[in-house]
Amino acid sequence: MEYIVTIDDSNRQALEVIEYLKKFNFVKIVNSRKAKSELISQSLEEDEDGLPLKYKEEILSMSKSVNKKIAQRWNEEREKRLKKEQVI
After folding, report:
1. Number of DSSP helices (H) and strands (E) in the chain, helices first
2. How far is CA 29 from CA 37, 75, 83, in A?
3. Contact 42, 36 (CB under 8 A)
């Protein structure tokens, strides 16, 4: 698992933290210019609607599930209102 941490190196404590982290062999320190270019290169391809292709099926599945639940709740509320109107 990777973590991305942004450290503002404008003060002495921040620079000390960076130097301390450099001592570990599992920590990779990247200059911000490089990090930005890496993030841009790793951006996800999107379809015409702006959905990331990598997660499109999951997103559509969740959307369908949510829409069904909303429709079900709406119908239940509508039936309650109709029953109240019939009683009156």
Report:
1. 3, 0
2. 14, 55, 66
3. no
* Contact (CB, 8 A) for 47 and 56: yes
Q: Which of 33, 32, 27 is nearest to 3 (CA)?
A: 27
Model confidence, pTM = 0.45
Distance between CA atoms of residues 52 and 59, nearest Å:
9
pLDDT, averaged per 10 consecutive residues of the chain (88 residues), comes to 78 88 86 61 78 89 95 95 86
Q: What are 73's two structure tokens?
A: 């709740």
What torsion do the CA atoms of 65, 70, 76, 80 make, to the nearest 10 degrees?
170
Residues with Cβ < 8 Å from 8, sequence gap 6 or more?
A: 14
